[in-house]
């Protein structure tokens, strides 16, 4: 945590800022480990403050170790304005994507003579490369995810509703220690499997269906994300063919991961294989995305994405083919970029699972 704050302070100084207000939930947690729902990290020329209200006194005392705790008596924004005025800061940075126009205008009136300077990505750029603590949290979340996909296989049968499968998976992951799902679980069967984000609905599984299961859990504040496609009964020739193409494309994308390459290189490896097979127009989304405290964060893994991969980044590889009115296939793994390739966080097979 000390290293994170020092790195962030260095970034603010390079931007010519003498104070910075971290207001967003995820970035506040990254810089403080505070998991409550109200508070702010405030860097000033006089030091580091963590500001919250009396509801979170005990929680903040236990979780926040590298900033001085300041308990607010007024509303959070009013308290922050008073602290900034008292600090004498003149160039104050804030997260442009996490402050409303009304909040910005009000702060300007409270801080005459100071400049409020919008920034983008200062904390997020630090979050790109996961440290050892973050990587272990994500490995632990991935282990629960592996267990969850194996658990749900015995529940898949004709007649079961998609939403019942999703509910069982989420309850299982909680019983395994997860804080909850990292996003709304996708269980899409039959024709609905051709919907890339077909969240679980009332449709009941039928014999011959492909089922796209896209899910993950949150553990110790970090997310996992996995997709597998399961067949209910023996697959048709077309289902086998399309699944095989996606499986090979996903393997090609994984092979393309290496520090120094770009996120676009990973996307191109998958997309090239799918296009050569004649299904390029059936793969409309990006190949993957970063994962961490949020299930979707930078870097984005899409066509011509310029982000250079660095060791310690966490990205997904999830190509798919979607045949409208028939079925869809997607296979997804979560990986850490390494200097020589990648570390796959999952052990679950990518061969077609038939139940």
Tell me briefly what this model is.
The chain has 355 residues and is of the alpha+beta class. Helix content is 35%, strand content 23%. The protein folds into 2 domains: 2-127, 3-Layer(aba) Sandwich (Creatine Amidinohydrolase, Chain A, domain 1); 132-354, Creatine Amidinohydrolase.
Structure, described:
Strand 18 (333-337) and strand 19 (342-344) form a beta hairpin. The model has no long low-confidence stretch (mean pLDDT 96). This protein has helices at residues 2-14, 25-32, 57-63, 76-87, 101-110, 122-127, 132-153, 162-175, 237-255, 263-276; strands at 19-22, 40-44, 47-52, 68-71, 91-95, 115-119, 180-181, 186-189, 210-215, 217-219, 222-223, 226-231, 288-290, 297-301, 314-317, 320-323, 327-330, 333-337, 342-344, 353-354. The chain is elongated. The strands form 6 sheets. A 6-stranded mixed sheet has the order 4-3-2-1-5-6, sandwiched between helices. The protein has a 4-stranded mixed sheet with strand order 8-9-12-20, covered by helices on one side. The protein has a 3-stranded antiparallel sheet with strand order 7-10-11. The longest helix has 22 residues, at 132-153. Helix 7 crosses helix 8 and helix 9 (237-255) packs antiparallel against helix 10 (263-276). The protein has 2 domains: 2-127, Creatine Amidinohydrolase, Chain A, domain 1 (3-Layer(aba) Sandwich); 132-354, Alpha-Beta Complex (Creatine Amidinohydrolase), CATH 3.90.230.10. It contains 10 helices and 20 strands. The chain is of the alpha+beta class.
